[in-house]
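Design job #97: recover the sequence.
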């Protein structure tokens, strides 16, 4: 979702920077880059370490609540689409391809984002707080989505923008369309690099889906 369908990674940067300043510190560029695609718990642990605060469970929970509240304020102002995302979702729906949203973002914020994305756009959604702590880059988010869709992960195409997300999808056995947003993505044997969703041939994917079905 973040960085793939909507250009919300920049909003995360605002919220994370605000929290760092709230704690009297500053978020480094290297740490922010490492957070891209990560779940809330892992991101808060890195953030607290960056500002010199012990990353205890209580501190992580408090930081997560603070950042989630700030993100809710930012999400409420609306989310800008990534290039080609709206058309990609429309084409997938028109072609009858099952679509799952697999995001590291927590459910409460994802529900806000769905006001922009459209709840009927997806057959199901899997959020970062719904995988029993087995978040990206663990394959479980994509494996769970495939189980709920009733499909083989090897028959799935994942669209990702971060190294963490790509690693998760590849570990699950999916082919990955890798579209970098905030951080670069290197080539790999199980990924296809594209500059944006406007460069993806969804009609060809629909033909592959039809043959597989």
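Job complete. Output follows.
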């Amino acid at each position: 979702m973040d960085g793939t369908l909507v250009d919300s990674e920049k909003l995360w940067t605002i919220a994370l920077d605000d929290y760092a300043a709230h704690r009297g510190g500053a978020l480094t560029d290297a740490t922010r880059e490492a957070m891209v695609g990560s779940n809330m718990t892992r991101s808060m642990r890195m953030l607290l370490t960056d500002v010199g605060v012990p990353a205890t469970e209580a501190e992580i929970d408090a930081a997560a609540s603070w950042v989630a509240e700030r993100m809710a304020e930012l999400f409420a102002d609306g989310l800008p689409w990534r290039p080609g995302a709206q058309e990609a979702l429309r084409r997938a729906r028109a072609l009858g391809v099952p679509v799952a949203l697999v995001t590291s973002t927590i459910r409460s914020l994802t529900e806000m984002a769905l006001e922009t994305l459209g709840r009927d756009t997806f057959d199901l959604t899997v959020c970062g707080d719904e995988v029993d702590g087995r978040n990206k880059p663990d394959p479980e988010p994509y494996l769970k989505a495939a189980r709920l869709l009733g499909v083989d992960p090897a028959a799935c195409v994942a669209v990702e923008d971060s190294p963490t997300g790509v690693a998760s999808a590849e570990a699950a056995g999916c082919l990955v369309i890798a579209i970098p947003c905030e951080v670069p993505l290197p080539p790999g044997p199980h990924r296809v690099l594209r500059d944006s969703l406007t460069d993806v041939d969804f009609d060809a994917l629909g033909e592959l889906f039809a043959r597989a079905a």
